[in-house]
Specification:
Radius of gyration: 26 Å
Largest sheet: 8 strands, antiparallel
Mean pLDDT: 94
Distance between the termini: 99 Å
CATH architecture of the largest domain: 3-Layer(aba) Sandwich
CATH class of the largest domain: Alpha Beta
Shape: globular
Helix content: 25-40%
Oligomer: single chain
Number of strands: 25
Length: 572
């Protein structure tokens, strides 16, 4: 009996011993960085790729290096934090790190305390002008990378001191065609309990200074956080520019030069005699959860929709001589910007005269990528009695899979809990979910297991499922949206966004009183960012949002402007 008992205990003894001998990290930050104690997400980064810094090599793709994350509160300068366990991606735990040579780096994504107007207190990473990117956020602490031979299972102890802070980002300067505006939002400042700002990059038309009497239609080009107005430059690319750079996404060399050439081509069109004279803006509305707010009001982000529409847009139109009426405003964009373009057209139907939504984030939550949040029980796995098959999250145009739903969400969970990773699923939670008792967004599904919360899903449907809301409210929305909805998506979108577009199209085709009188179009084998261009490859068409849509907008204005509207002062 004694021998049997010893044999049975051996696996438990070895397992316990293995846990005790996991790699341990002793982490501190130098008091030269700050004399104050810090809250935040402490990230341990390990890379087997010896080139560059580990902080730049973390993603949810096939070549991601390792990240392990843990929250710290009240970490003092010079204090050592001992860590022998942290949630990681793509390796989940320290003890599973393969032995080998690694470049090690540690980064603290610093949090600030926000005392919200509803009495809740939350700790979040404020944007510092970089567009909510943890690995480039000014002020974040980090260590210098160093190389080490890692020997998991030996109880190895690794000491790391953070001695550097990421420097501030220089704000862009005005030029002849590109201007900038930044305002403090009263609506957002009141809600967040501290000063909050909105900004925009404004592309002014040729002749803007020479025609002070002109007032212009306004185009809102929605998209992810822009550091400056993108895709526009007044000089051609250097003829001797290096073209050995390779785009693995598009399978071509010299894409940097192609982008510069397209930006210069846009400048030449923009200044040509017959091109429409419009204002085009890209909005900066980064927030403590993401690089933009999705341009709508939200339980967790506050009244960003109203702040943009009632504070920022009027300020832009006043300063840059916008017409300031709904018939003279249009909106377009791709991906997140595609969802935003359709959403603001719906939620502010009288304030816009049309939206062009390309490759939009899911516009029907029965197809949140490959998840039906209403009928599926689990977001990570297909339902099956005898096997566990993970749902894909990203593919190429041939259907090759790069990541799964489980991997994408574990990647986010390593970067931050409580929807604080600054990544895709977490911002959907922050925008679409009700606020929890702790002041943070309620989870749509368990981030570790994938189990869906149906109560939260129902809240998403009633407030942000664009197809559902259109169908529910078509009697009142339909007359205001006739001729305004244009949706484009590749049928091999990398994130399966075309599935939701199919469902939206099914509804739109059945509309009556009125019929929607818009369009839904698909690109054959086209990947993410396809915007309706059937003549050029995606790597070109994705750079031509402005030149594609602005002439069509001019036609819409000529057909729909009300009697007495100013359709001449800007047609010089």
């Amino acid at each position: 009996m004694r021998i049997i008992l010893i044999v049975l205990l051996l696996p438990v003894m070895f397992a316990c011993s293995g846990r005790k001998e996991a790699v341990q990290f002793s982490i501190s930050f130098n008091d030269s960085l700050s004399a104050q104690q810090q809250d935040g997400r402490l990230l341990i980064l390990l890379s087997s790729d010896a080139t560059g810094e580990p902080r730049m090599k973390i993603n949810d793709g096939l070549n991601s290096q390792m990240v392990f994350g843990i929250d710290v509160e009240g970490m003092k300068p010079g204090q050592t934090v001992e860590i022998d366990s942290a949630f990681g991606y793509p390796v989940t735990e320290f003890r599973d790190i393969p032995p080998g040579t690694y470049t090690v780096q540690v980064l603290l994504n610093r949090y600030e305390t926000f005392n919200l107007s509803n009495g809740k207190t939350v700790k979040l990473p404020p944007d510092q002008g970089e567009g909510q990117q943890w690995n480039r956020k000014p002020g974040n602490f980090l260590s210098k990378p160093f190389t080490i031979e890692l020997k998991p299972g030996t109880g190895q102890k690794i000491k790391v001191e953070m001695t550097e802070a990421i420097p501030a980002i220089k704000e862009p300067e005005d030029s002849k065609y590109i201007k900038h505006i930044k305002i403090q939002s009263k609506l957002l400042s009141d809600w967040w309990g501290k000063p909050m700002f909105l900004g925009a990059h404004v592309l002014v038309p040729e002749g803007f200074e020479e025609h002070p009497e002109a007032r212009y239609p306004l185009m809102i080009y929605h998209g992810h956080f822009p550091s400056d107005f993108g895709g526009f430059q007044t000089t051609p690319p250097d003829a001797n520019m290096d073209t050995t750079d390779y785009s693995s996404r598009f399978g071509i060399y010299g894409y940097a030069k192609i982008q510069e050439q397209e930006a210069y081509n846009f400048y030449k069109q923009w200044t040509s005699p017959k091109f429409p004279r419009f204002l085009v803006i890209e909005i900066q509305h980064a927030n403590p959860y993401y690089d933009d707010s999705y341009a709508v009001n939200s339980a967790n982000l506050g009244p960003y929709g109203d702040a943009i529409m009632k504070e920022l847009i009027p300020a832009i139109e006043e300063k840059f001589r916008g017409i300031g009426q709904g018939w003279a405003r249009f909106t377009y964009g791709g991906s997140t910007g595609g969802w935003e373009a359709l959403a603001v057209q719906m939620f502010y139907p009288d304030e816009f005269n049309g939206c062009f939504a390309a490759c939009p984030d899911p516009i029907d939550f029965r197809a949140m990528c490959l998840v039906d949040i209403y009928s599926d029980k689990n977001a990570f796995y297909y339902e099956s009695n005898y096997k566990q098959l993970q749902k894909p999250a990203h593919r190429d145009y041939l259907g090759q899979i790069q990541s799964t739903m489980k991997e994408a969400n574990h990647y986010e969970l390593a970067l931050g809990d409580k929807s604080r990773s600054g990544q895709q699923w977490d911002i959907w939670e922050a925008v679409y979910s009700p606020m929890g008792e702790d002041g943070y967004p309620k989870r749509i599904f368990n981030k570790r297991t994938g189990e869906i919360d149906q109560e939260v899903a129902n809240y998403w449907r009633e407030n942000y499922d664009l197809r559902y809301i259109l169908e529910r409210d078509w009697k009142t929305l339909g007359p205001k949206l006739k001729g305004k909805i244009h949706i484009f998506c590749g049928d091999m979108d990398n994130y399966y966004l075309n599935n939701a577009v199919y469902l939206m199209e099914d509804f739109l085709k059945k509309t009556n009183n009125p019929f929607y009188t818009g369009e839904v179009d698909y690109g054959d084998r086209a990947e993410h960012c396809w915007n309706g261009d059937h003549e050029n490859p995606n790597y070109i068409s994705r750079l031509r949002y402005n030149t594609m849509y602005l002439p069509r907008i001019l036609k819409r204005i000529s057909e729909s402007a009300p009697s007495g509207a100013d359709v001449k002062s800007w047609r010089y």
